[in-house]
Design brief:
273 residues; alpha/beta; 13% strand
């Protein structure tokens, strides 16, 4: 069953992604996939290594970034804590112009927007959006956060702002289904929003490790990042489902939204750097 992973983290998502790039590529090839994206948190450190290794393996590389976006401006440092200072937004390079714009966004996020994380804002997106495909990201995205807070009006406003920047052909509402209660809460709202805005759905799995068996090793990694012990309570907890699933597994998670699966193929075909 055809499917392309468009939301994937390597070990360059520092202390958050477990998988090495060669392992990701080997796993994708073993699963019979023809393309794969790399979308590390806030940086493009692995892009060259990923691109060259994927091409050498006969796998189409899709270069991306899970960016951090300020809810106001990149210069605003008044939020007081990390969770309010930056939301997640997924960007994929469709062509060489998009790749150059992705590099500019990444550089300026560090040079001009750094506050807890390297951040962009809507002004930069408006300036450097050409050649980029945008999806709304995970539960830490702006739209999901608004829906979780019960503010559908705000979610629609934010979706409209991204739609104005990217247009209907390059903006997608991202769905995930990994057994998280909050996903069950927001997914109906995300589907409704996509229908209201007239944009497509896309299914992803927010890959942080290669296989389900790697979950414990990933937990060790997150303990390091949060300065906790495995025995501590209240640590950062990830779903065991955040691995590089095969097409059949992804079809099972997205069976309610077949369009979201078809659009992974569509986006992969759009992307050619």
């Amino acid at each position: 069953m055809e499917f392309v992973h468009l939301h994937v983290h390597s070990h360059y998502s520092l202390l958050d992604g477990l998988s090495r790039i060669d392992d990701l590529i080997e796993r994708a090839k073993t699963l019979g996939m023809k393309a794969l994206a790399l979308t590390d948190h806030g940086n493009l450190y692995g892009a060259y290594e990923f691109y060259t290794a994927a091409r050498a393996a006969g796998l189409k590389p899709i270069l991306g970034l899970e960016s951090y976006i300020s809810p106001t401006t990149r210069q605003d440092k008044s939020m007081g804590n990390q969770s309010k200072a930056a939301y997640h937004l997924l960007l994929l390079a469709a062509n060489n112009e998009g790749w150059h714009n992705l590099m500019k966004l990444s550089s300026r996020s560090f040079l001009e927007g750094f506050y807890y994380k390297p951040r962009i804002d809507r002004e930069l997106l408006a300036e450097y959006n050409k050649g980029l495909v945008c999806t709304t990201g995970c539960l830490a995205g702006e739209i999901c956060s608004a829906l979780l807070a019960g503010d559908t009006k705000k979610a629609r406003r934010i979706g409209g702002e991204y739609l104005d920047i990217f247009g209907r052909d390059r903006f997608f509402i991202e769905l995930m289904n990994q057994g998280e209660p909050d996903q069950d809460k927001v997914n109906p709202g995300l589907v409704n929003l996509a229908n209201e805005l007239g944009v497509g759905l896309v299914g992803t799995n927010d890959v942080h490790f290669l296989t389900r068996e790697d979950k414990q090793a990933h937990k060790v990694l997150t303990c390091i990042s949060t300065n906790k012990l495995l025995s501590d309570e209240g640590g950062l907890e990830y779903s065991p489902e955040l691995y590089l699933k095969d097409g059949q597994e992804m079809h099972a998670t997205m069976k309610e939204w077949p369009e979201a699966l078809r659009n992974t193929i569509k986006i992969a075909e759009m992307c050619d750097v």
